[in-house]
Amino acid sequence: MAAPATHAHSADHLALAFDAFQPATVSDAMFSLGLKDSALDPTVRLVSGRRILGRARTVGRTPITANAGQAELAKDYAFAIQQVIDGCKPGTVMVIATQGIASHANWGGNMAHRASHLGAVGLVTDGALRDVEEMEGYGLTVFAQGTSVRAGQHRFATTVANGPVICGGVYVRPDDIILGDRDGVLVIPPEHAGDIARKSAELLGIEKEMQAFMDSGASLYDAVQKYKVR
């Protein structure tokens, strides 16, 4: 099925190649091409907005322990999350990896305010966030495992600043293409984007033909046999 327009930056032609596709179609295309599964765990759900398409800017957060805080884990990164957000630009998708821990929020209103002002289109986190109504006011599309009124300050340490992270069980690098809707979130490697977009267009065309075939009176069984899809 074709997808609605998104807020991807108009100059990012590589990302915009996926503007017409739903993540499910792109996931099928990646599977057809033999590429590794890059769909985030379904526990990362849509919280606000409808659809997201842009480039990843990443932060890794680690829960502190009784004997290890920010100073022990990464003392030079005490304000790294703020600096990463300050580096947002039009089309940025902030990706905050928390090892899947959602007890405290690692994203909130002030972060959203700054990121939105700089042109970011949304957030993906395998942790929790808060101030959801503010996100909606800024027009940000947000995916998270959940929400929490409790702040992550003094509960998490920043250990990765715009470097590779594992979010929702998926390896995410800065500038990877992030595509998400109510079905879930997909990470698209830019180095394969051209092939993936072409295969996605092919699969979307087959789907439209298959549905037209059924509209003409064919059964689902006959359509599956004809087009070799499920």
TrEMBL record:
What InterPro entries does the annotation carry? RraA/RraA-like, RraA/RraA-like_sf
Q: Which cofactor does it need?
A: Mg(2+); a divalent metal cation
Q: Provide the transmembrane region boundaries.
A: none
Q: Give this protein's Gene Ontology molecular function annotations.
A: metal ion binding
Keyword Cell inner membrane assigned to the entry: answer is no
- Record-annotated residues binding substrate? G108, G109, N110, M111, R130
Annotated residues that bind Mg(2+) are located at D131
Gene3D superfamilies found in the cross-reference section: Ribonuclease E inhibitor RraA/RraA-like
| Alphabetical UniProt keywords | Magnesium, Metal-binding, Plasmid
Q: What is this protein called?
A: Putative 4-hydroxy-4-methyl-2-oxoglutarate aldolase
